Amino acid sequence: MAVTTPARERTRREIVRQAMALFQAGGYNATSLQDIATAAGCSKATVLYHFSGKPAVLAAVLEPAAADLAELVAAAAELPRAEAQDLTIQRFIDLAVEHRGVVDVLQDVIPVIEQMPEVAPLVADGLRMTEYMAGSDDPLELDLAKFAINGLLGECRHSDERTDDDLRRLCDIALRRLLRRA
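Structure (tokenized):
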């Protein structure tokens, strides 16, 4: 295993930072490892020293959001169903707003994300979050949760159109109207 030094850690962080910016600006599929290396001021070999390939760079870009999602799912797992639904709705709203940039990146890879083992835990946690958000095993409730999540994630992509507070309010109203039984 390679020795981690402050310089190597700075380089790794810069690669991730530049990859995020490039993935947001042009999309994951349109961004090459060479593009990332150039933006980070290093060689493609340096990128490959730190990451096994572009999917591994993507996993590093998604890591903060994935950790927050894993924390949400773990917390919901400890609660009764109704409380888990409440917690999941509120925390999803916070995560969607906080990680707007990641939402942009994810939209480009959603069609193939299940084929990327590097992000398998994120996918699994996303599915569990959907189940908690549905608040029920009813297939219709699960479909409504999927519908709500996908629609709201689409809204989160347009960061210049809504303030964080506006987006939080929209997400809260939409989720509670779609997912709450009277």
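The chain has a mean pLDDT of 90. The first helix runs from residue 6 to 26.
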